[in-house]
């Protein structure tokens, strides 16, 4: 019985450490990681409707061409291809990241590199020209957990 209690306590401690993770600034010009609200293209919160599917991330406001930063110490784990539609080629880039016990992706970012490590606040890359594909949208970085769970509590 005591081994079970120790195992449960250890698991709770790990959960508590992960729950304490908070993303640092992701985009120049948005020090508080302000989330995209609603515009003519939809809403930026987790589980917002997208036709017959649900939005599986959170959109953080970021102007086209802005610098994107590491939210904490991260390992870069390769490029993300966001779309299969060639009409969206201008914004069809992103990066896989790991850090602080989290695995997540940033969409609409042209990364400077796709492997290695970065310290919190170091440049990841540049926000892609979202307005060229979705005129009038609130330009943003899409933050998506690798398991597609809700990232809101980390932002």
What portion of residues belong to β-strands? Answer: 25-35%
What integer is the average pLDDT?
91
- SSE order, as H and E? HEEEEEEEEEEEEE
* Structure classification: mainly beta
Strand order, sheet with most strands: 5-13-9-8-7-11
Low-confidence stretches: 9-18
Q: Number of DSSP strands? A: 13
Q: Percent range for helical residues?
A: 10-25%
The biggest sheet amounts to:
6 strands, antiparallel
Specify the number of helices. Answer: 1
Shape descriptor: globular
Rg: 17 Å
How far do the termini sit from each other? 38 Å
Topology at a glance:
Elements: H1 2-19, E1 38-39, E2 42-43, E3 49-50, E4 53-54, E5 58-61, E6 67-69, E7 74-80, E8 94-99, E9 102-107, E10 109-111, E11 115-118, E12 123-127, E13 140-145
Antiparallel strand pairs: 1-2, 3-4, 5-13, 6-12, 7-8, 7-11, 8-9, 9-13, 10-12
What features would you describe in this structure?
The chain is 12% helix and 34% strand. The chain is built from one helix and 13 strands, in the order αβββββββββββββ. The chain has a six-stranded antiparallel β-sheet with strand order 5-13-9-8-7-11, with no helix packed on it. The chain has a three-stranded antiparallel β-sheet with strand order 6-12-10, with no helix packed on it. The chain has a two-stranded antiparallel sheet with strand order 1-2.
